[in-house]
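Researcher: Before we compare anything, I want clean individual predictions. No alignment, no superposition, just each chain on its own. First chain goes here; please echo the sequence and then give the C-alpha cells.
Model: Echoing the first chain and its structure:
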Amino acid sequence: MPVTPFQFLAALTLAAVNMVAAANSPPTWPVSPSRLAFDTPYGKLQVATSEYVYESRLQIDGADITPEVRGILNITYAFSLPKAQVALVSVSTGNNICPVAYRWVTLKQSGYTVSSEFGSCSEQIQVSAKGRVFTMRTPNSQKPDKIDIYTYDGKTIKRRIAAQP
C-alpha cells in the first residue's frame, strides 16, 4: 500500500517530536530498594517500627543507635567491604519542604559510625560504590538542570554540583 506525502510528513513530524521530547526529558531515576533489616557479621541493623508514622527508630541488635535516627526509615542500599558493612538509610520526618534526608551507617568489628544527615531533599537517587567510596547522585532541589553528587569515604561527606547528563 503506497504512502501518501501527507502520511509520510505526519510520520516524520511525529518522529521529530519524539526525538525532541526524549532529548529534553530528565534522566530516569530508579526506584530505591527498601528493607527494614540488614544482617551483618557485626550485628543486625534494623528499623524498629512504631504505630506512630514518624516514630520508627534505627537500631543495632535491638538497641537504638547514637545519634538517634527517628522518622519513617528505610535501609535503601547496603554494601559489603572486607572488614565492614555499609548501609544507606533514608530518613523522612514529615517535613514537606525537605521530605527526605540520608545517613550512612558503617558497622565494623569495633562498633558502628553514623554520618551526619545529607541530601537534596529528593527520593530520587542513584547510588554506587567504587572501592571504599560511596556515591549518591540526586536532582538538585534549586536548579532542575543540575544534579548533586555526594561522596562518602567512611568519614567525610562531600557535595559537588554537576550538569544533568
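Researcher: Okay. Second chain, same rules.
Model: Second chain and its structure:
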Amino acid sequence: MEEPMKPTIVTSAAAIQTVKAALLSGLLLSLVPGVVLGQSIAKKGTTPYVTHFIFRPLQSIDIPGLGTATVLEAVGTTQNMKGEAMLDKMSAQCAALSVASGEKKYIDGACVLADKDGDKIFSTFDTRDQDKSQPDMNCGTHIITGGTGKYKGITGSEPFTCISMPALAGPGGYTAMDIPHNTTWEIK
C-alpha cells in the first residue's frame, strides 16, 4: 500500500515576505475606506480651478441693427490651481446661448465635466448671476446640479471670471478663453 503524499510547506524567506506583504496590503485597504487606487475624494471643499476653453459657434441669428443670438459649443480641459485631484485634468463640454441684443448681453448654458474614470459633474451657468462676495469672479456663476460615480450627490456654486485669449487661426469663428472658477462643493 502506498503512503499518501504529505504537503510541502515552503518556508523560503522570499515566500514569507510575499505573504507578509499581501497581508499588510489587505489590512491597509480595509483600514482606509474611500481610497480607490491611491486617490481619495473628500466630501466637501473649496477648489480653485481653470477651464481652458475653445468656443465653436454652431448657429447664429442676426438681428439687423439690434444684435445676435448664437448657439455655442465649448470644449476644453480643467486644471486645479492647488495641484489637487479634485476638478483637475477633467474634460469639459458645454452648450450655451450667447445673446447680444440691444441692452441684453449674456451667456447661459450647461456643462459636463468628465474625469479619467468616466465619472461626471453637471452644472448650469448664467453670466448675469454675479457673486458679489467675490468681486474678482465677475463673469457669472455655475451651479453644480449633480454627478455620477464618485461625484454622485454633488452640489455647489462656482463663481467664475473670463480671460479672453488671442484670436484663433483659421476659419469658423472659433474663440478661446480661460475660465477661472472658485468652487465651493459638497457631496452628500
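Researcher: What stands out in the second chain?
Model: Residues 7-12, 18-39 have pLDDT under 50 and may be disordered. Additionally, The domain at 39-187 is CATH 2.40.480 (AOC barrel-like).
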